[in-house]
Amino acid sequence: ANVASWPWVRVLSVAVADVEGPRTLYRDTDRRRSSLWEQNLAENAKSSVDVWALALDDLAAMVPQLRAIKIDAQGAEAQILTGGWRTLRDPRLTWFVELWAEGLAHAGSSSDAVIDQFESTGWLPIGSAWDTIRLAARGHSGHSSTDIHLQHRDRPNDE
Fold first, then answer.
1. Confidence band for 27, pLDDT divided at 50, 70 and 90
2. Are the C-beta atoms of 57 and 63 separated by less than 8 Å?
3. Spatial distance between the Cα atoms of 54 and 41, rounded to a whole number of angstroms
4. Strand locations in 18-90, DSSP E?
């Protein structure tokens, strides 16, 4: 309903993960904090629902003029990037990503792992340095997080 007046927006009821297939989404009482990992809920799961997941590369292929990606996935960021190796190599993109150390740990990953995925494919933080972001992400506890904005080192000058 929030985007009904925007004909260029297509809403898909899917999760994004490393591979396509069924997943369980645990619903927090605050739906903005729902997660594929029950431990990442602020409160005990009030309910769960089976959802279909797509790999990021498959989802990105559905958007011919894709120029930006925002990931705030309650700990699933590393898994999402694992399913997006082709997408990670597109220098035209701009990324906005939340690094929530505790949520990533519950999902079997870390802020360092997410940073490594970006750094190894040529992404640079805008307005900061990787070392600064690593320290900030490691310094957060609880539901505190670090937001990063990235541009590729090989981004064409005309975009």
1. confident
2. no
3. 22
4. 21-27, 47-55, 68-71
102 and 134 in contact (C-beta within 8 Å)?
no
Question: Quick one: angle between helices 130-139 and 111-119, nearest 10?
Answer: 160
Q: Which residue has the tokens 């590369």?
A: 57
Going from the C-alpha of 131 to that of each of 25, 54, 121, 143, the distances in angstroms are: 33, 32, 17, 21
Query: Which residues, 6 or more positions from 63, have their beta carbon under 8 angstroms from its beta carbon?
Result: none
User: How do beta strands 21-27 and 47-55 pair?
Assistant: antiparallel
Q: Output the average pLDDT for the chain.
A: 90
Cβ contacts of residue 61 below 8 Å, gap of 6+?
A: none
